Amino acid sequence: MVQRLDDLKETSSQTAGPYVHIGLTPNFAGISGVYAEDLGKRVIEDGVKGERIVVSGKVMDGTGTPLKDALIEIWQADADGLYNSPSETRGRADPKCSGWGRIPVDMADGSFSFETIKPGRVPHPTGKDQAPHITFWIVARGINIGLQTRMYFSDEEAANKEDPILSRIEHQNRVPTLIAEQDRAGYRFDIRIQGHKETIFFDI
Amino acid sequence: MAADDSRPESGAFFARDSTVHPPALTPSYKTSVARSPKHAKLSLGTTLSEMTGPVFGHDLLGDLDNDLILNFAAPGESAIGPRIVVHGRLLDERRRPVPGALIEVWQANAGGRYRHRKESYLAPLDPNFGGCGRVITDDEGHYCFRTIQPGPYPWPNGPNEWRPAHIHFSIFGHGFAQRLITQMYFEGDPLIPRCPIVRTIPDEAAIRRLIAPLDMNHTIPMDARAYKFDIVLRGRRSTLFENRLEGN
Ligand SMILES: [Fe+2]
């Protein structure tokens, strides 16, 4: 026998279920008067530094059907690549950019959309700069543990090419699943949980 | 410890121990079949994008945010059902308390009915129960809220499937990598071992850690029983030196 490590085990994940909105966006769920406003409705405030953009898309299951009960949270750096977090040690982020958003998909057609700014570049532990990206976390009924992925930008070709994460992906033909394309409305980012063009999810 | 605690936490997180979590594909929970990625997840190692996370101040909270018995009720009214207090501690894998963490909860009413437009169970709504609450952990990681014990409810996974009574929990730690959603169950509920969602977790000991025991010492006499539910988030390295090792 040896000594025992006394670390605790992480609490197990359980699905967010079909009624996640009651807890996380009660006003969206029609429960008004408990909280003044749903958290994470705005990622940015007026006066924010940087290029304002709109990101929209859908989350699809293995049959190509959009999820109508999914909830997404996003997390991103400000225009200078700083995170609005106490764990950010490199400087103070733009106070007008919370960097965090919580977006329930539309209950009728499954679409989502949010306004933000294009994030700056953030260094990787290797010292290289990462390409601009937004972290996504997706929960829903049938998803046993929140899915983490990243959205990169199609108009950042040079930065994407040298990105220490994108360039290390073995199946380079799957990289486009992480890259939002530009259309008239802004950036389009569809997430496919399973099947043809399945989005790359990360174990972070 | 004191010197450690005065610095902002910026270390990389320990790798997630997948053995305590459900896999994505769990066919006895049918909805997971089309909602589970087939490809392996890509190991990223934590970068600043996952080590950082949003923070929520205590000024966010209203007086009744952690009182589900009153926070939706008409003045002078209160929710119907067995009155309980749920309390516990939020720690990380290194046994360090996680202060300032936002915990959001949601649940069915005492009859097992959710207040949601897509909910169709025949049990009635309670006009004085909304079903959501939130609390921020104190300096030692403690949290507490008051509610009514939710009822079990049927769900269309099989012809006769019932969820054990449960409260849904959403937890923000200090880094986005710690983000967690789980469910708390109640000691003694015979539906727990029958539940396909509970059984998505492959580890019996991990399931037991989701079951809150009755805590007589924290019961409020002649008012509410208490259940204790401790939660553990991923731990992280504490020093820059350790960070560097992580980066190589
Ligand atoms: Fe539930």
Automatic annotation (TrEMBL), chain A:
Name of one Pfam family that matches: Dioxygenase_C
Keyword match Glycoprotein: no
UniProt keyword annotations, A-Z: Dioxygenase, Oxidoreductase
Annotated protein name in UniProt: Protocatechuate 3,4-dioxygenase subunit alpha
GO molecular function: ferric iron binding; protocatechuate 3,4-dioxygenase activity
Similarity section: Belongs to the intradiol ring-cleavage dioxygenase family.
Residue span, Intradiol ring-cleavage dioxygenases domain: 55-83
TrEMBL record, chain B:
GO biological process: 3,4-dihydroxybenzoate catabolic process
UniProt cross-references to InterPro entries, sorted A to Z: Intradiol_dOase_C (IPR000627), Intradiol_dOase_core (IPR015889), Intradiol_RC_Dioxygenase (IPR050770), PCDO_beta_N (IPR024756), Protocat_dOase_b (IPR012785)
Tree of life domain: Bacteria
UniProt KW keywords: Dioxygenase, Oxidoreductase
Segments forming domain Intradiol ring-cleavage dioxygenases: 52-235
Family membership: Belongs to the intradiol ring-cleavage dioxygenase family.
Xref: NCBIfam families: protocat_beta
Protein name listed in UniProt: Protocatechuate 3,4-dioxygenase subunit beta
Species the sequence originates in: Notoacmeibacter marinus
